[in-house]
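Worked Example 4.2. Consider the chain below.
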Amino acid sequence: MNRLRNLLPAGIAAGALVTGMALAAPAATAAQTASGRANVVTALDYNSTGWTYRQVPPTTQVPDFADRGFDDSGWPLGQAGFGTTNGTCSWNNENTVKTPWAVDTDILVRHWIHLPRDAQQVRIQGTVDNDAQVYFNGHLVQSVKSGKCAAGAIDVVVPVADLDCCNLIAVRGHDGGVATYLNLRVTYVKPTNAF
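Applying the procedure from the previous section yields the following structure tokens:
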């Protein structure tokens, strides 16, 4: 009996330790799941093909060109980057400019992007010489005045309310003279299980 009394406190302490560990495990797992792990996925990369585009004088209005229902079937197809191969930007060369964009014009570009339903933090990044208006599914998400080819001047996370499965990115690039350049990419975060 004395032996049993001596073991009882040790048994209770061990039982409390095991119970405490068992209760703590789900909390740690929940914390891992809440913080999650994520992969950044490129939905549309720099120098991508399949862009429809049109060059227009700067004062030309093209109503609704950024809307999903706009008919761009008569526009040519091009590859990004758009620009001139002569200029002061490091991107103004034959390796990075795939489609010509004339100086002193605006360029309208459109591209469809498919995103999975769990896509999060959809981000548009890029460079423009000189200015740009960036649209996503017809909504203006960023206006950029980058001057002379400021790298990464285009950088915006698309509001969740603007996301769909099949999405349209549209940009109006504006040139102020000397040289032109426009190149973009779209990425998103895809959550993964921590297990």
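The chain has two domains: 2-35, 38-192. Residues 2-35 form the longest helix (34 residues). Compare this with Example 4.1 before moving on.
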